[in-house]
Amino acid sequence: MTAAHRGRVLEGQVAIVTGAGQGVGAGIASALAAAGASVVIATRRAANGEPAAESIRAAGHEAAFVRCDVTEADDVEGTVAEAVDRFGGLDIMVHNAVAHAGRPGGVHLTGSHRIRPQIATATTASFLCARASLPHLRRRPGTLILLTSPAGVEGSANLPVYAAVKATQRGILKSLAREWGPHGVRVNAIAPVARTPAMDAAVSANPDLETRLVARTPLGRLGDAAADIGPVAVFLASDGARYITGQTIVADGGGFLGL
Amino acid sequence: MSRDILVVGGDDPATALASELSGNVLHVAPGAEEVDDGFVDGVRRADGTAVNGLDLVVHALYPQQSRTPARIDEMTEREWAAACDDPLEAAIRLARGSHRHLAARQGTIVFCVPLVGAAGAASFVALSALAEGLRVLARSLARSWGPEQIRAHAVTLHPSMFLAPEHAATAAAATALHDPALGRLPSATEIAAVIDALADDRVTAGLTGASLVMDGGTWMVG
Q: What is the ipTM of this complex?
């Protein structure tokens, strides 16, 4: 094995990552690609999806952008078909895309128009991604990874709808793990806390936020999407995790210890 | 003074609990699509008067689509929405509409959720998603409404409280549940007594955000 191929535990595998134009999704996509997977960047906007794919290709890995609104069944099924056509199959489906939660506040203060899009992007889209990918994941057998949140476990005073929809993904993964286990298809989730453009925007609106988050984090810093969260997805997709299913890995520097 | 209680949901466990809770119980069984932000304001007592303050809201609104087993690869988008997305939105909107009524009484909201959410069950993915969403919604409400002394809890119940007997057997097998340690499941009377206690300031004024599993000792994981 050459140094360039060392650590390429996903060599020859094919992955789709939704919402991979920036932030945690982009970090996971680049980590999967660096581990040897061919990666489809599935985002609504080419403006961030195409550069994310180009950045992976520039690093010497294989990636393609496919436009995908994860709330639309035809888009999700089309993205899966495109991945299979282009790269020959599907081993890893990562659903990371998330809708804007709006201004922080109690559930009675959440903008009415913010409720259904959050359900659609987290809950409905998890169903659509699972349904579309199953026929291909069964053949390999492959794995489904959902991006949830610590808020989806412990709740959130200021993002109650976000917390609820992230919790639905934990319900989905536990039942799907039981439903798909006999096919050898594994289903897990990652609950990350990482510095992302969305986090940066929240911090600029509320400068104390970062201080408070770091103060509750034993490791004393916010995660990095590529260096801290990406490798968790690589592990869950790899053969090293072949006996792990139905689990949520909280990758938050130790901030939440309640599982 | 007798407590004003709103129970939302058709079939069991809502129906059974509505007849066992202690107080002036208003029991309504809307479809999920009928619950909007103004739903609670629109509820009328038997004498035609509107609700004006609530001591306890009990949510157990689960459409038949949620209660029917289906493999995820056999579900249509419409079936998924009816089983999970629509009732989740209804619960969020019920909470929004309940806020001012609960604030007026420093009341309590309780979500009754099936154990399949915490434990997972093949063929009940939509119900599991809905249950976990509601369990964490209760925690979020507890966190954000705590300063107003509104309390919020989830009470997790055995699948047989929600499902027809043949489906409950399917769910219990799909969840790989143990037999209840007590040798039986709790009755609706026993469950209602716990919910009454959760809304009783003399007993639980210092308790909020709890996720109680009341299943006779079937599931004992955090």
A: 0.96
